[in-house]
Amino acid sequence: MDIRSVAIMGAGHGGLAAAADLTRRGFEVRLHARRDESLSPIRAQGGIATKGVQTGVVPIKLMTADVAEAIHGADLVMLVVPSVAHEFYAAALAPHLTPGQPVFVNPGHTGGGLHFVHSLREAGYRDSVNTCEGVTLTYICRKTGPAEVDIFSMVKNLKFAAFPGKHADELFAAIKKLYPEIVLSSSVLETGLTNINAVFHTPGMLMNAGWIEDTGGDFLFYREGITPAVGRVTAEVDRERLAVAKALSVPSASFLETFYQAGLTTKEAADSGDISRACVESVPNKSIKSPPSLDHRYVHEDVGYGLVPFAAFGYLAGVETPTIDALIHLCSQLMGIPYAETGLTLDKMGLAGIGPDQTWLEVWADPAVSRNTHSITVESDSARFELKIENVPTDENPRTGRIVALSTLAALKRLVDPLTVGT
Q1: Rounded CA separation 175/167 (Å)
Q2: Threshold 0.90, pTM exceeds
């Protein structure tokens, strides 16, 4: 897979950084924004003005508010938007994506790739999907004006995965030419459960709510806002996240290890075990100010599309997440939004089953069959499997299999057994 043309969907912090960076490196870039007026300042200026690790004005070949125009013939569609916009873009892209056209969800955060594919299907897209994601945005950056972006650094050792997983090697090889720092992970569950933004942004916003409202965010979020107390709460959120990953047999690393590997703090701070110190010593984040209000993606995205799926995965794994649950509840009260309902649930990720309306059951009566036969077929984007059970009927009642009585006895026995192995 050779990528030369990239359709970048989204003209926010990451979209402008990606458009300028990739154009400067020789890729043909098409930049899409939902509203054409968002692109007008860039056209008037003659391109995107960059500061930080890159400087100068970078002209963009195509800028449009037309989705079809943006992605037509593109070698790669890159979704560079907050998680809350995945559903919108899935519906907008569904009529125009070509079969197998690769989509890079940058960033995927927690469950972003799963959510995007499920939303594509909900929007009526039935062709093959070829999606991949990075756990966080490939750039540390901030949009400092309508046509200006400050790029502080590129994220290092960025975890990357594909969904369906069968495309992982091919997509990894292709995307690595754009972003050499990506590292192939085992699955989108590994990338999703490595979303450290949700781990520390949420405590930082909640525990600094008064300061944010009083000053309009006039303080350094990471250097001044992640105090030792905020760091201790963050550490507990991280402990619960790691417990969920372990229960699901998903590889993961601590917040501090991930923060250090991403190039966001010093080794000494990471080794100290002190999250507050790690944030204070974060050079790429040193000048980033707090959001100006609580109405910000650090709450909406990192709670609804970070902590909510963390808790959902915990429910699947049978792991309690009391600190995560408390933060979800308090932020819901803070904002007047029921994040546990509006956020990224198992159903929105396509992990809650398809429901009775789409589940087909056929019952056949065949006098020639000597056994009660149950056949179950499951089809998904990642796999297809079949399960077939042939029960030997009882002599007394041929409509009932012998296994029924044995299963009943086993279930009753488990209720009183002091030790149970397996399920």
Answers
A1: 12
A2: no
